[in-house]
Amino acid sequence: MNYTKIKNWLQFLTDGIWRITEDEVSPIRRQLYSCIKIVYLSVNQFLNDRIQIRASALTYSTLLSIIPILAILFAIARGFGFDTLMEIQLRQGVASQQSELIISWINSYLEHAQSGIFIGIGLIMLLWTVLILTDNIERSFNAIWQVKRPRSVFRKITDYFSMILLLPLLIVISSGLTIFMTTYIKSMDNFLVLAPILKFLVRLTPYALTWGMFIGLYIFIPNTKVKLKHTWFPGILAGTAFQAFQFFYVNSQIWVSNYNAIYGSFAAIPMFLLWTQISWTICLFGAEMSYISQNLESFDFGKETEHISRRYHDFFCTIILSAICKNFAEEKKPYSAEEISKQYKIPIRLTKRILYELQDIHLIYETIEEKKGDIRYLPGMDTNKLTVGILLEKLDSTGSEDFKVDRRQYSESWKILQHARQEYIYNNSQVLLKDL
User: What pTM was estimated for this model as a whole?
Assistant: First the structure.
C-alpha cells in the first residue's frame, strides 16, 4: 500500500503536476504546486545544467583575475582616501592568513604599477583579465537563463567597469553605516526596548548587504529582463548560505593548520580555491532558482515540448508567425513571447524556441520596448507577401545538406520527396499569414 502511494506520488511529481493548468486548481493549491515545482526543478536543473563544472570554470577565472580586480578596487579606494576601510572589510571576510597574503599581493601589484612597469601592454592585460572574468560570469548566467545573445563589447565595458567603480563606494557606505549604528547603540544602552532591536539590526546588516549583492547579481548580470519579485527569495537564500559558509570558513582555522603541515606556505591556495568553488556554486544555484521562478510556466508540458512532432512544430510556427503578422497589419503593439504564449496556450519554452527559429530564418526580428525594455517581435518582410508557403519552404530548407550521399544513387527517392514537398508548398503559396 505504501509502495503504491510512493509510486503514485512520484508519478504525480514527475508528470501529473506539470500537466495541471491554472484554472484547474484553487489559488492556494496552485501556490503550493508552484513551490513544489520550484524546489524540484532547482535541484534537477542544478544537476543537469552542470553547475559544478561552471562553478569550477569561474573558480579558475577568479583565481586568474582576483588580484587585478582587487588592485583596481584598492587603487580607486586610495584615490578617495578610504583604502583602510577596504582592508578591514577584506580581513573580516577572509581568514587572517589568506587576507594578509592577498593584501601583500595587492600592495606589490600597485607598487609595480606606480613604478611604471605596467605601461601599454601591461595595462591592457590588466583590464583584459578583469573583462574575461566578468564575461565568463555573464556567460554562465546567460546559459542558465538560456539567453543566446550576450552583451555587446561596448556594453560589457561600460556596464562592468561602472560596477567596479561603484563597488568601493558601496563598501565604504556599508562600513560607515555599521560603525554609525554600533556607536549609536552604545549611547542607547539605557533604552531597554530599542537597544536590543538595534543590536539585532547591526548583526543583520552583513546579511542584508549580502542579500542585496546576490539580488543585484541576479537582476543585473543576465542579458535579459529579470523581475525583482523572482530574485528576492533566491537572493536571500543564497546570501544566507554564503554568510553561513563564510562564518564556517573563517572560524575553521584548524583546517589551515592541518594544510600547513602538507602544503607549507602554499596552504592558503587550496583553502581559497575551496572557498571560491563553493561560493560560485551557491551563487549559480540561486541564479538557477531565480530563472525557474520567473519561467516556471515554461516547464509545463516539458516532455511534450521536448518530443514535439514535426507537423505540430510547423503548426505552432504558423500560429506564432500569423499572430505577429496580424498584429503588425492591424498596427497594434508588437507581441512579446509571454503574450503569445498566454494568448495562444503554447508553452512558453516552446514559444521562445520557435521565435528563435523564426529569427534565424529572417522571418521575424526582435525590437526592444523603450520604456520597460521588453523584447517584442515584428515581421521580417512585407506581410502582403509573407505566405504559409514561404514559411514552410524556409523551415524545410534551413540547415546543412552537405553530406557525402550520392543523390544519383537515390534519385527516385529524392524526386518523390521533392515533388511531394513542392506540391505541399505550392498549395499554400497564395495563403497570406496575416489572413489566417
Answer: 0.71
